[in-house]
């Protein structure tokens, strides 16, 4: 994640970063420790007591209902958040408002029109119902972003999240005919498969395996 965002944003002590769907808080803790940036997290769950949030301005609830400021942030990130969101257009408009002029929004989600979806069909791990409320092809993701007043700077057919997870779990779902998985019992097969597929995974960025990332700024 850090390596990806640094391609588009110069980070330092004066930077302000907002992570929507901040989860465990490790990304924000890293950005604060590494760059001295002021960091803000928003999540559905109250995670404020976690040690990773000790130096984070945390907001609990629906993102578009939070008072995080306007024209404030150099960087806004949504790492696998938008597929959980109840109102993506409203969320994206709020993110646009939160960006400084020249600020950058980075969104990563599973890609519906991906190789793993074509391989696994209805056994594809992407839906994860009921947690995932929306699925995005490249076309639909770009459309909703641009309709929200954002300008696409870059589109990547990969993400920070490992596509191999979808390769493995899709195969496991198919073998189990859609029954649930206990991944804690599949640790050794998981890593053996990853080792066996290492040559394929080296080309992940060109293969459209499972993930996608869009980088955008405010359309002025």
Instruction: Count every helix, treating DSSP H or I runs of 4 or more residues as helices.
Output: 9
Strand order of the biggest β-sheet = 3-2-1-4-5-7-6
Q: What do the pLDDT scores average to? A: 89
CATH topology label: Rossmann fold
Shape: globular
Q: What's the count of strands?
A: 7
Key attributes of the depicted protein:
220 residues; alpha/beta; Rossmann fold; seven-stranded mixed sheet; 9 helices; globular
Give a description of the structure:
By secondary structure, this protein is of the alpha/beta class. It has a single domain, classed as Rossmann fold (3-Layer(aba) Sandwich). 33% of the residues lie in helices and 22% in strands. It is built from nine helices and seven strands. Strands 3-2-1-4-5-7-6 form a seven-stranded mixed sheet, sandwiched between helices. Helix 2 links the parallel strand 1 and strand 2. The model has no long low-confidence stretch (mean pLDDT 89).
Helix and strand layout, with pairings?
Elements: H1 2-6, E1 16-20, H2 26-35, E2 38-43, E3 57-60, E4 73-79, H3 88-98, E5 99-110, H4 115-120, H5 138-147, E6 150-156, H6 164-175, H7 187-196, H8 198-201, H9 204-207, E7 211-218
Parallel strand pairs: 1-2, 1-4, 2-3, 4-5
Antiparallel strand pairs: 5-7, 6-7
